[in-house]
Amino acid sequence: MAFHIVLVEPEIPANTGNIARTCAATGTILHLVRPLGFNTDDKTLKRAGLDYWYAVEVHYHDSFQELKELYPEGRFFCASTRSSKVYSEHRYEDGDFFVFGKETKGLPQDVLDAHPDTCIRVPMTDKVRSLNLSNSAAIVVFEAFRQNGFAGLS
């Protein structure tokens, strides 16, 4: 079982590092869409991922469109606080992509508009604008594994 986490223009290295650690723990493939808000040699990025970077399959893309063209049959679930559907309302399958936007702005509207049936959100109170990016990614990917009996995890 292999899921994919896509970070579109991530800005905070610690979030990307934490997500990389989740990817290492689950065998999830990480896709980073440029431009990145940091250098991949950043100490914060490395520290957050600890010594697990060797266990992460990372792919870099110059645009989200480039990524989609590489996976024309892929199902892309786009996370947004503006979505009406909760992440747990979908049935996830091997190979699905979970797409997250930059920390300060989220995903571009054209990406959301291109995936109206697969936009998802994590429910929360109205006291905050959003959850931390790495927390949101972990919540969604572990739901996908839960739905599939935690296949491949021990």
Structure description:
- With 154 residues, this protein is of the alpha/beta class.
- It has helices spanning 13-26, 43-48, 64-70, 109-113, 133-147; strands at 4-8, 29-33, 58-61, 76-79, 97-100, 119-120.
- It has a 6-stranded parallel sheet.
- It is globular and about 35 Å long.
Spell out the blueprint of helices and strands.
Blueprint: E1 4-8, H1 13-26, E2 29-33, H2 43-48, E3 58-61, H3 64-70, E4 76-79, E5 97-100, H4 109-113, E6 119-120, H5 133-147
Parallel strand pairs: 1-2, 1-5, 2-3, 4-5, 4-6
Helix pairs in contact: 1-5
Key terms:
154 residues, alpha/beta, six-stranded parallel sheet, 5 helices, 6 strands
Enumerate the strands of the largest sheet in spatial order, edge to edge or round the barrel.
3-2-1-5-4-6
What is the H-and-E element order?
EHEHEHEEHEH
Residue windows where pLDDT falls under 50 for at least 5 positions: none
The termini sit apart by 13 Å
Range of helix content: 25-40%
Task: Summarize the biggest pleated sheet.
Answer: 6 strands, parallel
Shape: globular
Radius of gyration, taken over Cα atoms and rounded to an integer in Å: 14 Å
Strand content bin: 15-25%
